[in-house]
Amino acid sequence: MGRWLVLGGTRFLSRAVAAAAVAHGHEVVCAARGESGTVPDGARLVRVDRDVDDGLAPLRGERFDAVVDVAIISYRWVREALAELGEAAGHWTFVSTMNVYADLSRRHGGVDDRMLEPRYTDPVGPEDFGAYGSIKVASEQAVNETVHGRALVVRPGLICGPDDVSDRFGYWPGRFARGGRAVVPDAPDQPCQLIDVRDLAEWIVACGERRTTGTFDASGPSTTLGTVLDEVAAAVGAPDLQRVPMSPEELIAAGVLPWQGPCSLPLWLPESHLGVVDRDTGPAWEAGLRCRPVAETAVAALNHERALGIEREREAGLTAAEEAELLDRR
């Protein structure tokens, strides 16, 4: 078994990767501030702060068979990790995003699609989050330049399941379990792809063990929004659940946003972004990626929703009052 470093390891994907590596029998070090959660049982926390100069100093001189970096939106973090740890790492995984592509409306695209122009400076505040894809492009470049021949670049789509902090997929299990009349987008044929965080983590660990290299779009099989919502409803929906379809035009006129944010309907997307949920992920599946049924993810997501409190203030979805106002229009 090997010695693994997860840059992070205390929340969502990085924590799931650390847990999967522990389950595979590896010695796992998680490098994080330790403020957003705990590391999985069996992993060891080394406290670092990537926001400060020389923040990775506690890892200096360490050697790892595999390193996994899930840096969300910081080119500096990626460069400094590579400079500190890249030379001695046996394998390096960088988790990027499907938002690196220049044309997000293009469906069935692959990893050779045209990408955004790279950005080599970090965001200046929350309002600068639009730089996300461009910073990931620059980060990918840095990874491939520094650890060429030892690098796996993973471009996931929507990651969901237990411990998700985005509230996107989890909105639907929580809402359907509550029952009654539930507003849904009248777009059943819209393409849809998602991946359970546990499946993505398991694949990342397996790729590190096999020393898999290259760039992959990573998500579940192509399906439709209608099918996903059917599967969620069948898995966790209350007996009195009644789905009320509303057209995209109605929703937009009422101020409902697609995908994420306050007063939104998650998983619903405009034509301009359908390429994010309709990628060619065949190469990842050929490389061993496997995904569980949506129903299993829905059950796990519902348990997470209930632990947090379904009626809490959310990052995505409709409040009960917002939904009632929409239903009153009918």
Task: Name the descriptors.
330 residues; alpha/beta; Rossmann fold; 2 domains; seven-stranded parallel β-sheet; two-stranded parallel sheet; 17 strands
Question: What does this entry look like structurally?
Answer:
- The chain is an alpha/beta fold and 330 residues long.
- The protein folds into two domains: 3-156, Rossmann fold, CATH 3.40.50.720; 161-194 and 222-277 and 293-328, no CATH class.
- The protein has helices at 12-23, 75-86, 132-146, 168-178, 197-210, 225-236, 248-253, 282-286, 294-308, 320-328, and strands at residues 3-7, 27-32, 44-47, 66-69, 92-95, 151-156, 158-160, 181-185, 191-192, 194-196, 214-218, 223-224, 242-246, 257-258, 261-262, 264-265, 316-317.
- Strands 3-2-1-4-5-6-11 form a seven-stranded parallel sheet, sandwiched between helices.
- α2 (75-86) packs parallel to α3 (132-146) and α4 (168-178) packs across α9.
- It is globular.
- 47% of the residues are buried.
- The model has no long low-confidence stretch (mean pLDDT 96).
In short:
With 330 residues, the protein is α/β, with parallel strands linked by helices. Helix content is 34%, strand content 19%.
